[in-house]
Amino acid sequence: MKSTNHTVPLVSIIIPTFNKAKLAIETFKSIANQSYTNWECIIVDDGSVAEDYKVLHAFVKSDKRFSLHKRPINKKKGANACRNYGLSLSKGHYIQFFDSDDVMLENCLEGRVEAIEASTLDLVIFSMGIYCKGGFKNDDTSDVMVNTWETALSAFVGKKRLPWNLQRTLYRASLIKERIIFDENLNRFQDVEFNIRLLSQLKPKFKIFSQIDCVYRRANSSNPRTKSFYKDVFQSIPIFLESIHTEIPSDILEHNRDNLKIWLFNLIGLYANKSLQKGELNTVINVAKEKLYLSNKQKIILNLLFFSKTKLKGIKGVVRLNSYLRKNYIKLNA
């Protein structure tokens, strides 16, 4: 479908951005090169340094379909506030959230619009490649190729891999506008929490397609994590747990409670480091005890894991210790 703007629906692409101008420009160029041409790209800057903002401003002047906005000062800093503001400005029949460090393949929008236009679906999901040597690969697994809101909801809290993320999904604007927004208190787990609430509250019809039409760029030296990343993870865990405890039907939550306990162990193992204080862990454990029914022994193990990751990194035998902690933590779920 080679688009002509008078006959095809407008797609609103909403992108929050913060510094990383070089990567963002690559993302914007991939959008400008789309075979589907009837789109608007609403870029909401979250307070980038002046030099980066100038780079973005110079680029958007080259194509009137791009618009650059600053997050309103009365909005809380963060990507979710930027997404909500961008959504309020959007005029499209379809909504495409995207990140400023990922890339659309040339037929991305065309394929998504064709799929949803030919159906009565509320949203369509396509696969996302991950860069590797020689190109990119599909990282999906068969267990997350779900087809109902109930199985998708269970997969979002019960599987190692998520069924989808924002970048992979084209939404009908009528499904989400003035019906659901992003939680602006969350700095991590943002799209997971959004999709869990969307599935639970709106119960949409959807389909997952295996075709890769966009590519994810992992954090590395040219795409670094923010300085606040690790603190943001720990501050967001209690908010996320409170939300899903409210939103997810009790039977689905109960069925996946043990998986969520393992998810918690894995997060602490991955992201605890010397920049964090013990009090930040205590807040996480107190909420997890209430929402996930952590046992006292599991609390002790999580404290030991945190100590290992923040105080013992690099010491001989610490990997074996962490493996021992994990084994015994999982046993307590039985």
Automatic annotation (TrEMBL):
Domain Glycosyltransferase 2-like: 12-168
Gene Ontology molecular-function annotations: hexosyltransferase activity
Keywords recorded for this protein, A-Z: Transferase
Listed SUPFAM superfamilies: Nucleotide-diphospho-sugar transferases
Domain of life where this protein originates: Bacteria
UniProt-recorded name of the protein: Glycosyltransferase involved in cell wall biosynthesis
Organism from which the protein derives: Jejuia pallidilutea
Top-level taxonomy: Bacteria, Pseudomonadati, Bacteroidota, Flavobacteriia, Flavobacteriales
